[in-house]
């Protein structure tokens, strides 16, 4: 296979551990010849992201807590200092209080709602604004979503509403940034056993349903999402913006 991302510098957020979808994306990007800028939440995640990506072509590691305007402003400055355009931004971040993923949706607190939306949806807008000044050759922005944005998935609750906001934000960003040749899309991944899915009630039975009923009859693998992300980052998708790409073995059909 030719190297689809040779000469591109890609910024990847959300590498927390070896199960992170962002980690699979970084590996696919590196395989295709991209260089990587990695953002991390805190010192603990810096260490694990550093260890995980030691074998990858990382040109810079930068702190970015998406709830901090200071971090976001510093991110822009650090990227400008890097002295080269950024071609791709991967948003692979989400957080809701665990209690809001278990209790009845009607009991979602204002605070829990705002936290989930701040970290999981507003952050796409804020990160895009921080990175767009260095996307001077055009580029590709992508965010990770899930079917719970448009369907009721048991226990997904406030995260489903936040993913709906994320998907709508993706569309408005696509409209805003299109004239600068920056494309904005989302990947809606099928259920994957990540750290974020650990502890989800009946998760293994959700995976069993995908295995038994999905058109492709297998649960989504992180590498499948990584390779779809390569397409969205590459010039092969130059005509694609404002789209949600389902990488879910076809589960969204049901
Ligand atoms: C998460 C909750 C409920 C059902 C779920 C999920 N299903 C799937 C997920 C069916 C696939 C995983 N997912 C798509 C997510 O977006 C997870 C987000 C998440 C997970 C946690 C767990 C730990 C915590 N906060 C979280 N915030 C967001 O404390």
CATH architecture: 3-Layer(aba) Sandwich
Mind describing the biggest β-sheet? 7 strands, parallel
Helix/strand order, N-terminal first: EHEHEHEHEHEHHE
Q: Just give the CATH class.
A: Alpha Beta
Bound small-molecule species: ligand IMJ
Structure summary, number of beta strands: 7
Which blocks of ≥5 consecutive residues have pLDDT under 50? none
Question: Which shape, going by the Cα principal axes?
Answer: globular
Helix proportion range:
25-40%
Structural category:
alpha/beta
Overall mean pLDDT: 97
Enter the CATH topology name.
Rossmann fold
Structural account:
- The protein is of the alpha/beta class and 254 residues long.
- Helix 3 packs parallel to helix 4.
- The protein has one domain: NAD(P)-binding Rossmann-like Domain (Rossmann fold), CATH 3.40.50.720.
- Strands 3-2-1-4-5-6-7 form a seven-stranded parallel sheet, sandwiched between helices.
- Strand 5, helix 5 and strand 6 form a beta-alpha-beta unit.
- Ligand IMJ binds next to loops.
């Amino acid at each position: 296979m030719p190297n689809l991302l040779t000469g591109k510098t890609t910024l990847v957020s959300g590498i927390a551990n070896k199960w992170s979808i962002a980690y699979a994306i970084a590996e696919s990007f590196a395989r295709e010849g991209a260089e990587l800028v990695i953002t991390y939440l805190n010192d603990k995640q810096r260490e694990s992201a550093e260890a995980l990506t030691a074998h990858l072509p990382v040109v810079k590691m930068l702190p970015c807590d998406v709830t901090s305007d200071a971090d976001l402003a510093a991110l822009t400055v650090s990227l400008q200092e890097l002295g080269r355009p950024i071609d791709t931004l991967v948003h692979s971040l989400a957080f809701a209080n665990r209690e809001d993923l278990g209790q009845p949706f009607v009991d979602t607190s204002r605070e829990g709602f705002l936290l989930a939306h701040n970290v999981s949806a507003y952050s796409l807008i804020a990160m895009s604004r921080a990175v767009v000044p260095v996307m001077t050759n055009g580029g590709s922005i992508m965010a990770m979503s899930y079917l719970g944005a448009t369907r009721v998935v048991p226990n997904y609750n406030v995260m489903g509403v936040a993913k709906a906001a994320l998907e709508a934000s993706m569309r408005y960003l696509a409209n805003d940034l299109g004239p600068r040749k920056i494309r904005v899309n989302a990947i809606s991944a099928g259920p994957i056993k990540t750290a974020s899915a650990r502890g989800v009630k009946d998760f293994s039975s959700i995976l069993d349903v995908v295995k038994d009923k999905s058109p492709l009859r297998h649960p989504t693998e992180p590498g499948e999402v990584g390779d779809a992300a390569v397409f969205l980052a590459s010039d092969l998708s130059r005509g694609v913006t404002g789209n949600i790409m389902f990488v879910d073995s076809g589960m969204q059909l049901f």
